[in-house]
Amino acid sequence: MLGRMVKSQKHGWAVWSAMFVIFLAGVTTAYWAEARGNPIHAVRGIDVVSSTTNPGGNMEGKEVRFGIANSALYATVTTDASCGAVNAMHDSFTPLGGLVPMVNMQLGEVVFGGVGAGLYGILVMVVLTVFIAGLMVGRTPEYLGKKIQAREIQMAMLYVLVFPAAILTMTAVSVLLPMGLKGLNNGGPHGLSEILYAFSSTAANNGSAFAGLTGTTYYYNTLFGTNMLVGRFVMMIPMLALAGFLAEKKIAPESAGSFPVTTPLFVVLLVSVILIVGALTFFPALALGPIVEHLLMGAGSLF
User: Fold this and answer.
1) Which of 112, 123, 248, 292 has minimal CB crowding within 10 Å?
2) Where are the domains of the chain?
3) Comparing C-alpha atoms, which of 15, 11, 4, 283 is closest to residue 143?
4) Per-residue pLDDT averaged across 76-97, rounded?
């Protein structure tokens, strides 16, 4: 029993180290983007430092008592977990600053874990990482003494696909229908970001928003409610099936062919799998929203 407890603690160290790396990257990116400021503000002389070569930080939508650093930290933490509280207006962040909380939710809030759902979101990524890494090096994919086989991977992939399917489908419908476009306060890529953020937040059961979108309509209330049901309850089905499949298996002792999951290499692999899975599902939408908005901001475009 003591040996199994020590083994579980080692596994936990690797997983939470990977989560901390993602958290640190998010905070750093958000702070850099906000501290760099908006060059459009600098040109008009309304930035902290009125210079195009040395713009001040982006204080739009932020309280002076918190400033840029605490606002960037708070936005990252509140979307790493399904908290939803804010101390600054995420809609007023720079494009890349707003990208961070959006991506945090789209990754499944795996860093600190969404309330009631964060643990199994993390475990899905661990299962995928163990399976992929095991296939790459010819080792037996197993975690906590349970071998990972076809049925477990099928359920894990179903879990991974349900989440972006709900978000992206409802976002696409909303940018095409007049009822969806009526709620926008901004056009162009920022308008897309507002809608994408709203559906990412409701699917992840977060609660924060790009507040430029008016969501208090029959249309958005209906879609947001449906999205919340899918994001919480539909995703439980493959996870319960995965848990059942693993419970049926007997615990197998580690051997020379087992893939090690307590090393820094596994931390790197887990971070890579989380980011790659997120990029494969959401990068096209992000490229049309905050990424292209960042490029246009540098060219002086407003939305």
Assistant:
1) 248
2) 2-22+110-298
3) 11
4) 91
